[in-house]
Design goal:
By secondary structure, this protein is α/β, with parallel strands linked by helices. The chain has helices at about 20-30, 50-55, 70-75, 115-125, 140, 160-170, 200-210, 215-225; strands at about 40-45, 60-65, 85, 100-105, 125-135, 175-180, 230-235, 245-250. α7 crosses α8 (about 215-225). The chain starts with 19 loop residues before the first helix and ends with a strand.
Length: about 250
């Protein structure tokens, strides 16, 4: 599957492996604790790596995406007994009311028009008392990452923290708001810039082995993300987070 900058393709060797993937993957590691033994929906599952991660603790996970190409990729690369992938619009879900114990949706909200319709659908398919975990870029800080221009061409609408919370409160009770810095933020020795432009055949060989072996890959992720700056943590008004993550409760 071609990497366009919109969907994360772990299997490819481009910069996404070291940059975009780790940011996205760590959010799923954060969400996994809420999914244990539950029926989970991954709304906007993309290429499926996150759905697979949630399935490690969930009873069952259904990943949906509007792209048939993405769903085909998911089925071919992340098949598992307790996972089902379906082509579906997250604003018009073909599920019964109160189907899921937990809904996870990372980096999807800003990609669609009619965000209210999506949130109303999540509330419908999520059982009372169920958990909704959602992330979106913080508009005030996210644009700083772009060298030219102040926007991501794939985004329809981005939110500030206040706007994000205001929108969610119309449908859910917010149990907690968390922040995540970019992988490149910190000491400047990031996975993005380190070694790029001087790639060796040996590094490329090691990279391919790590990506193809799930145990090696998990070990690599754990060691790489050990530093605190890669983690999702409770929101601090003094910090400059690139991503916002909200844990919500579905109340009447």
């Amino acid at each position: 599957m071609e990497y366009t900058g919109e969907r994360v393709v772990k299997e490819r060797k481009e910069i996404t492996l070291y940059y975009v993937f780790f940011e996205h993957f760590y959010r799923y590691c954060f969400a996994r604790r809420y999914c244990r033994d539950k029926i989970v929906l991954d709304a906007g599952c993309g290429t499926g790596y996150g759905t697979y991660e949630l399935s490690q603790s969930a009873k069952k996970v259904i990943g949906i995406d509007i792209s048939d190409e993405a769903i085909d990729f998911c089925r071919n690369n992340y098949s598992r007994q307790n996972i089902e992938f379906l082509e579906m619009d997250i604003k018009n879900m073909n599920f019964e009311k109160d189907t899921f114990d937990c809904v996870v949706s990372f980096e999807a909200l800003e990609h669609i028009e009619g965000q209210e319709r999506f949130l109303a659908e999540v509330k419908r398919v999520l059982r009372p008392g169920g958990i909704f975990i959602i992330s979106t870029p913080d508009r005030d800080n996210y644009c700083r990452r772009f060298v030219t221009g102040n926007h991501n061409r794939f985004h329809k609408k981005e939110f500030s923290k206040v706007e994000f919370e205001t929108l969610l409160k119309q449908y859910f009770r917010i149990d907690g708001v968390f922040g995540q810095v970019a992988v490149t933020q910190g000491d400047g020795k990031s996975l993005v810039t380190k070694g790029l432009g001087r790639e060796s055949p040996f590094k490329d060989f090691v990279r391919r082995i790590v990506v193809k072996n799930i145990m090696l890959y998990k070990l690599f992720v754990i060691l790489t993300l050990k530093k605190r700056r890669y983690t999702v943590r409770p929101f601090d008004e003094k910090a400059r987070y690139v991503y916002l993550i909200a844990v919500c409760i579905n109340e009447p």
